[in-house]
From TrEMBL:
GO cellular component entries: cytosol
Domain of life: Eukaryota
Protein name, entry field: Uncharacterized protein
Xref: Pfam families: Peptidase_C26
PROSITE patterns: GATASE_TYPE_1
Organism: Spirodela intermedia
GO molecular function, one term: hydrolase activity, acting on carbon-nitrogen (but not peptide) bonds, in linear amides
Amino acid sequence: MTSELGKILPRVLIVSRRSVRKNKFVDFVGEYHLDLIVSYGAVPVIVPRVSGVHMMLDSFEPIHGVLLCEGEDIDPSHYQADISGLSAEELDEIRRLHASDTSIDREKDSIELRLAKLCLERNIPYLGICRGSQVLNVACGGTLYQDIGKELSKDGKEAVAHIDYDNYDGHRHPVRVIENTPLHSWFDESLKPDQGMELMVNSYHHQGVKRLAERFVPMAFAPDGLVEGFYDPDAYNPEEGKFIMGLQFHPERMRHSVTDEFDYPGCPAAYQAFVKAVIAYQRKVSGSIAATVLVSKMDGEMEKKRKIIVRSFSKARDLYASRGTVSSEEHELEVGAEFLESNTALSSQQETRLKQMGATVRNASSYAQKLKVNEEREKLARKVMAKMSIEQLSELLSFYHMMGQTCSDVLERKLMATF
């Protein structure tokens, strides 16, 4: 079972985005996301944005990682947005300017919020890109700007242009990277202290983090103060399968238009670290499953042994009750005798009663003598055990501990009822 689990590549769930083509819905995921996930050793599993899928997420198990990216605005009801500062006319203007984003998709919201909360509950690695970072913040109790430009201008701030429909892929704006964060380590060779530790990132959004959830630490800010990246430091250690992060920009799309090369060497690093965490998480989960299978297997073997020993005791009881007239195979009685001989936790009163009961075909004096473990036999037993594997020793210890206690309790009750 363990070897079979090891052959399964880790699975990263990605929720598709819905579009319309030839008057029919089409679900899609950007190829850059898929290429990077595959190139670093994981398998992308696309969760289609189809009605009812949010109730079927168990069918996508095992889940070793979740990548959420791109999509429409999240329904404000999920974070109780205060839009009292925006007039009806302003809200209508926002819908006209960003028509493709403001058409809320409640089914996608439901699927992605459930996945985000599942990751938080089970410590499954999570990478949120653009909308995916907003989903993560909302899932943890944070809020979003309904429209960055409108709301910041009301606060007397000048908003950065976070989207440019006329220069969609080519648009860039600066962000200041915070030191001692994963983002800083990935882009370290491209960051210059004398240039303000800035990167030029792409931008495809009109909403963003307004109040960052308490568990997160910012990794980058735009000049207008918008959080462009954040992570949970207590849930970040890719080598141990820990990764909870959100990036407002798209590092996978930060490429030169002609050569398709990345703007910076650190651009794919988020995906590389994410998949590393996914692989580590799979190993950790597979180990737990393998351990469960081993325990189950051991329990099955112990149950077989228990039945054999109980049968031996039953035969001995019948033999004693009939004063030796019951025909029994000697090896059946030997099993019970050997078990009792190995159990040194019996009280003197229990030993006396066992002798009286005649629990084995041996006479009382022979049985009493065999209960005293010979020093040489103990040394021999230690030598034998030294050659046993950890699994065998664990099984032996568990078996005798359980059976010793069970035998002592059951015999005590039965003997008290007999005498």
